[in-house]
Known about the structure:
The chain is of the alpha/beta class. It contains 15 helices and 15 strands. The strands form 2 sheets. Strands 1, 2, 3, 4, 5, 6, 7, 8 and 9 form a 9-stranded mixed beta sheet that branches. The N terminus and C terminus are likely disordered.
Amino acid sequence: MSPVRNAPVAPRAGTGGPAQDGAGRGVTLILPGPISHDGTAYRIFKPYGQLASALCAHFDRVTVCTHVLTAEHPAFGGSDPLLDPRVQVEPLPSPPAGSPGVARSLAHHLRSSLAVVRRIRQWDVVYAFVPSYPGAVAYTVNRLFFHRPAAVYLANDWEEITPYTFRWGGGVRGLLFGPYRVLLTRWERWMMRSTRLGLTAGRALLDKYGGEGRPIYETAPILEMKPSDMVRREDTCLQSPVRLLYVGTLNPRKGVPVLLDALRALVDEGRQVTLDVVGDGPDRAELQERVRAMGLGDRVAFHGFVAAGPELFAFYRRADLFVLPTYSEGFPRVLYEAMGHSLPVVASAVSGIPFLLQDGRHGLLVPPGDPAALAAAMRRVMDDGALRRGLIREGFALVGPIVARDPASQFAELCRRHLGPAAEAA
């Protein structure tokens, strides 16, 4: 048994008084994770921790169930913020380190699934985050056997991201990728069409699954940024060099190589531009080597992971133009943050992005995987002051009301409406 399993869990929520509107119930968030445990306390990705903490005002008990990493694990996140001590933790086994083969991965998923099944009877309301295997397994087993009130939060389209989440190449990919993608696509569709309450990240997923007689809602985004953090500026790109900014995970789905190719094109035509890359991930070393090979070492700075909050917001405030060359998203949190800091945005026209951002009004949208189109859009923003100021103004106005929304209050209200006593027989 791992040390994490034996660690004392945090006190139950609600010990300081009754929950405001949780009807005496607890809620368990089955998160993609992982979270970290340093031997004394849990650390969690800040938006998830923020949501769990806010839910303590609405439910008697709040529990997080996800994979837990100890300090010995290579992916240990010691820089993540502490989890609110009111939130209880139900740990799942740590994922295998490195690049496990198919057999080790399947064994890990089986152990995690069995751990989830053993716990479901103790949960009042199940809030399953997908795409993730713990969330999908928890929802499925509960739906088929235990019938606890349950909601699904769909953060991204499993069908779209499978080319980037399937880890194996060669013959294994040729043999298994097709069935893998079909299975996950059908699994996601079944969950969203059978759930008593579904929430989606972004309008594209809402349009895909809404309107079929099930209560599906676009969730209020889980943001660290508050209205008081927003910064109003009239214009950017007035300095030399112009500072480009990318914030996000460094993995194939995010399209950072496309951004580097576009940057190379701008540099080749004599433009004074630099790029700050904020984030970490499995592709970091490869991207850094690519930058050296392209002769961009003096133009690109890799800053690693920066926790959401003042330190991250300082990057937005120093930047002139935000660029997101992604291949797939629900709706990325970083776009809210960029527009809330008065940055003009250039982003891929994929998934939920075009449903919120009107091309030419709130940002410039380009096809994914097209360095020439990306460079042309960045060039246009830098050269056209009237366009740039309009993007800044309209983006800021769009984000203001969204930032003010509270995802915890929204979820609690939807639980009362769809998962309360009147819905128990559904």
